[in-house]
Structures are given as structure tokens and as C-alpha cells.
Specification:
The protein has helices at residues 3-13, 27-36, 48-55, 66-74, 110-120, 139-149, 189-200, 213-244, 248-255, 279-287, 295-321, 349-359, 388-393, 408-414, and strands spanning 17-21, 40-44, 78-81, 92-95, 127-131, 159-163, 182-186, 207-210, 330-334, 363-367, 373-376, 379-382, 396-399, 418-420, 435-437. By secondary structure, the chain is α/β, with parallel strands linked by helices. The chain has 2 domains: 3-211, NAD(P)-binding Rossmann-like Domain (Rossmann fold), CATH 3.40.50.720; 226-437, Rossmann fold, CATH 3.40.50. An 8-stranded mixed beta sheet has the order 3-2-1-4-5-6-7-8, sandwiched between helices. Strands 10-9-13-14-15 form a 5-stranded parallel beta sheet. Strands 11-12 form a two-stranded antiparallel sheet. It is elongated. Pfam families: UDPG_MGDP_dh, UDPG_MGDP_dh_C, UDPG_MGDP_dh_N. Belongs to the UDP-glucose/GDP-mannose dehydrogenase family.
Length: 438
Amino acid sequence: MSTKEMLLEKIQNKTAVIGVVGLGYVGLPLAVEKAKAGYKVIGFDIQQKRCDMVNEGHNYIGDVVDEELADLVKKGMIYATTDYSRIAEVDCVAICVPTPLDKYKQPDITYVVNSTESIAKYLHKGMLVVLESTTYPGTTEEVVKPILEKTGLKCGEDFYLAFSPERVDPGNKFFKTKNTPKVVGGVTKDCTEIAATLYRNVLEGEIFTVSSPAVAEMEKILENTFRNINVALVNEMAILCERMGIDVWEVIEAAKTKPYGFMAFYPGPGLGGHCIPIDPFYLTWKAREYDYHTRLIEIAGEINDYMPEFVVEKASHILNDFKKPLNGSKVLLLGAAYKKDIDDLRESPTLKVIEHLEKRNAKVSYNDPYIPEFTHNGKHYVSVELTEETLKDADIVIITTDHSKYDYDFIVKNAKVVFDTRNATKEVLENRDKIIKL
């Protein structure tokens, strides 16, 4: 029996041991789904605290069901460790680590390189390695493959390598890791077949195979760049509508009535999360290697990056109408998470709004039912209780995240003025003269 046949048999009869490197928003849900499918899973993370929480059955990711994790741990189906030598025990391993940008908006693939080097130390024949971290086209073949082949093992013969981009939308009530379609591109046809077989045995969504890792890497960048550019378009429309005295939210609702050729995107205080504000810049960086300047992507990035500053400028104008300067005014922000009904602070535009407000000496406080406290730029922030007194005490209340838990009638009734950057107050009928929308 060939190396490929032996690995496929292990995957099909679920005797394969699965490793997941990185137990964050992508890795932990994936590890849980693989364990639920009947595979023994070993999770790897550099944070001992995360490993301890997993091994105690304590969940820290919103899209994972607490009871499911606890049950899988109790049954011995999932175990987390900081000991990367245990990669020697696994047959298939997924790399689900962060891929941030540095301060120059260039890709930082340090976590990918470090994880691959850790895997290479224990790489063995008949092993599948899948990179899931979003990155620039070429990473799998130009960075990951050479590190693994330094062991003397040959990709496509001794071990198998593929790229399958993560698709995680925190807080999405319908599409989860389990039922979201998955794209898979292997270095060779055998690599693609083996990786696709594993995902078909774990997930319910369509497994769509492509001809190479580069195609899979590029399609992920296209997904997120599409959203980035369309959000930038509607943000620019919001800025123009504000100057023209037109309600951009009404404009969007009207445009949505067209049954073809239009997809609704909405303005806001800026982009957040790991993917949309970051991934397009991976492509702009890679494009320079081919002597191409991705103008549209970079302009979209500039518009979206400007939105937190625009929010603060408009807040200043609102306060000015009340004969108050922004300097010294009490500003209450509602929502710290980058999107509604989650506890994810990554790249949240609220953080940039806070920075701009504090540069202008505003007295900033915030409330978020999902994020009781956080530290940013060395300063610690604690969520204030959302009471009648808190609202009345603020000179301006800015809705930066439209959490469903908020009682917007209560908020508008008690606030002096509400600057709504998310159209969260659209159903509020009374005191609408207090509401100013983006």
C-alpha cells in the first residue's frame, strides 16, 4: 500500500490523529468540528492559558458551544498542549495562526514560519499539512514547502501540502465552520485529493477544489478585497451624503429594491476584524513584486482608515452646535467590539475612535456588554454601567457597535444627543430629534 493510500485509509476510517496549530477564532472551532466528526485531535498553542482552558473544557470562543467542548474533552477526543513535539503523533495538521500586518502595512508571516518550522522538526512520511491562515498568493509553495522539504522529505510523495483558507464570520447565526463551503488547493493532485477527503469527512459545506495553493490563496484575498472596496464605496457615499444633507441609509434601502446588479453594504465608523482591514494589503504588497500598483485597493484602504477620524470630526461639529468644544467633553461610546453581538476586539474601529478623541482631550468612557475591559496602547479601559445617570452625564453618546442587547429607546430617551454610526436607532420612534446619523 502506498503512502497516499495509507493516509487516505486512516482519514476514511477516522483513525488519523489530527493536529491544529493555533487555537484562536479559526483553530478552536476547526479542532472541535474535527473531534465531533470522530477524529482524535491535538491542539497546539503557545499560550499555556488557552491550553489549560481547553483541557478543562472551558470555552473562550463565541462560535464554539460550551457543552460540546466540555463533552469532547471528557471523552478524550480533544487535548491541547504547548508541547510541539507531540506533532510527531499526528497524521494531519492544520496551521491556523495569525497573519498580521506590521506598522508599514506589510505582511508579517512570522507565526506561519515559526509554526512550519515546529512542524518540520517532527514531520514524517504520510503526513498532511494544511495552511489555513490568510496570506499572500505564493506563501504555501514559496515559504511553507521549502521549510518542510529541508527535512529531506519530498512534497507530494513523502508528505502532502495544501492551502485551504479559513472562512470564519464571528457571530454569524447561520454559517459556522461546519456548514461553510471550503476551498482546497494542493501542491499536487494527490495533495488536493487527500486534503479534500479530510474536509469532506469533517464538514457539511461544499468542498471546492482548485488547481493550486496560489489560486486558493488568491481567492481568499479576492473575497475580502471585494468587501473592503464595497465598504469603502458606501463610506465615501456616507461622507458625501452628509455634506449634501441626504440620508445615506435611506439611499441604501432604496437601492436594495433593485433585484439584480446591487448588493447592499453599509457605512460605519471603520473596518474591524482580522480579515477585511488587513488581507487586501497582502495583495498590494505582493503586487509590487510584479511591478503592479493596486490603486483601487489602496484608495479603498485610505477611505476606510479615515472613517474613525471622520466620526470624531462629526462628533466635534455636533458638540459645537451645543456650544461645547470636544476638548473636555464627556464622550460615551457604546460598543467596543468590531461588529455586533460578539466579543471580538481585533482591529476594532472603536479603538481608533478612542485614539482620535483622546488626542483632542475628550473624556472618553465606553460600555460593551461583551467586553467588560481591555487594554489598548498601554492604557486600561473598563466598561461603565449603562444607567440613566451615565447616559445623562455624557455630553454625547456615540453608537460605535450596534449590539442587539442595547435598549435604544432607553438610550435615546436619556442621552443629550446620540450620534448613531450604525443606524442602530432606526426603530426608535420617540425623541428622534436627539439622533444624528452618520
